[in-house]
Amino acid sequence: MNTDDDGAMLTTGAGDRPSSAATEEASLPVADGRQSWQYLERVLRLQRTALVVTTLLLSAGSATALLIPLVLGRIVDAVLAESGLGRIAMYAGAVVGAGVVSSLLLRWGGQLLVSCLQRALAYLREEVFATAVRIDQNTVEDAGTSDVVSRVTGDVEAITGAASGVLPRSVQAGFTIVLTVLGLAALDPYLALAALIAVPVQLCATVIFLRRSRPLYRRLRREEADRGQAIIESVRGADTVVAGRSQGTQLERIAIRSLSAVETQREVTRARNRFNAGLNFAEFLGLAAVLAVGFWRANEAGLSVGAVTAAALFFHRLFGPIGALLSSIDDLQRAAAGLGRLVGVLLAHPFRAPRRQIADGAVRARSLTYRYRSGASDALTGIDLDLAEGTTTVLVGVSGSGKSTLAQLVAGVLPPTAGQVLIGGVPANEAGQAGRRAVLLVSQDTHLFAGTLAENLRLADPDAPDTALREALDAVGACWTRELADDLDTALGHDLDDARIQQLALARVLLADPRVVVLDEATAHGGVDGTLDTAVHAAVRERTAIIVAHRFAQAEAADHIIVLERGRILEQGSHIDLVHRPGGAYALLYAAAHRGDRDCDARAGGR
Ligand SMILES: Nc1ncnc2c1ncn2[C@@H]1O[C@H](COP(=O)(O)OP(=O)(O)OP(=O)(O)O)[C@@H](O)[C@H]1O
After folding, report:
1. Do 509 and 433 belong to one domain?
2. pTM score, two decimals?
3. Residue 158 in contact with residue 167, Cβ under 8 Å?
4. Domain of 422: which CATH number?
5. Could you report the predicted ipTM of this complex, rounded to two decimals?
6. What residue owns the CA closest to ligand 1's atom 12?
């Protein structure tokens, strides 16, 4: 095969690019207690009426439940006074009635509470996802991809679990505790004071537990995120790991991180066990005090045995909810930590701002400069661009010269460190047209989304009819899709090769129909024979296009070529201008690439 001009490669070697995740300490913000509470208040206020009804139901349910110990006390008094069976039966009926009514009210209130919390959570989840996709790529990478992943998975899971379990249980327990203490005080203030002896022990146990467990939980979340990061890195770099025979080292890394998470989890369990022992001791102490004071009050103040029994039952009733509330503290803390991390995503100042309508498809940059957070120097410095609507510009330069960085700045996925880039007069991160993004970036990283062929395409335009999908597929030369068993409804598997996945990405460009398209080595998977050329021609037709090319054929066909070196524009012009510029960088690169081909052909012919 003769790899003539089409095969000449424009970029050489891989640059020594630092892995940003490894080099940066930066992470996404975490909201403090006040910020989380403010957010929660704002979200819950949206459902004020439902919350008022919930409060009324829970209060009524808890108050009705208080009748049970009171009436049981009356039964004791009635037995001691040898009252008739009819009276006792009436009391027994009242106990059953109070039990049924209170459980119905509490159940109803509980269900309403869960739906309020779930709605608030759904709102939070939507806001977090919407913000997470607008945070600039480098912030996400700098924080470690697993940080974002663990927030939208682990933290959401922790809060979802809490919203349907521990949170409503704790609120119900809170109502029961408050009303029972009031009931106890109404029965006899001395008995209520006796019960209070349990409080310092409970407080002590709780404070010790919180002091101990808070840093442990924070450590645990961090260690779980580290473990996730190690696994993600190993899976992503599986080929390199296998090629370098470093499976053992990678497994050891994951094992070390897993072990530290397990060890922390064990410390948490030990702290919890000690806490439970403290609560049991408090219960024993309180009940003993109530019985002793009850005995004294019965002798001294003529309190009936039934009233003391009711007080002991009140106290006993108190301990179920107190225990539930206190032992839920770690789940609540976990949920609070998760909430802080989720609300933190909302504080991350998403770079991609709401869209503003562009005037046209011209691209203009002035003094555009970008420095990566971990970079010692600027990746791009003082770039000026004036690209007319509908033209195709190719970026050329050796590896590390700044082509991808410039592509990402024009696409509005990186925020300029200085200067600005405008699409039709609007900053690139805000550029919109008819409510959609006006500029799209297709990189060489291929993404196949779970789902059918149609679902993969409709990501670009959810309302596109089947005919539009087929037209887009035909335009990018994806003939293979015609042979799929279920046509557009075929579920796509990961056996699809990168070139085909990239064809789908370019078909999405046609469906999204942006005024400006940025292709960052998007055809690299088409190899040197230009398998993806049809797709690229279709994607750039009638739009402003910026292409980081990997073959000279793409530069030859472009309207304009920009040669970058060390983050600056070295020269620019048409292919004919540049290739004939004596001693010019482009001319030298072009000649070198073609000399390489001839050598290659010569070697092939000699074999
Ligand atoms: N995430 C990053 N963190 C730190 N520095 C980076 C990062 N990405 C790129 N750089 C640095 O910025 C400079 C420009 O890189 P860029 O990727 O834009 O070059 P390029 O010409 O596209 O290279 P290639 O052809 O290899 O993709 C290089 O010095 C590179 O090492």
Report:
1. yes
2. 0.60
3. no
4. 3.40.50.300
5. 0.97
6. 379
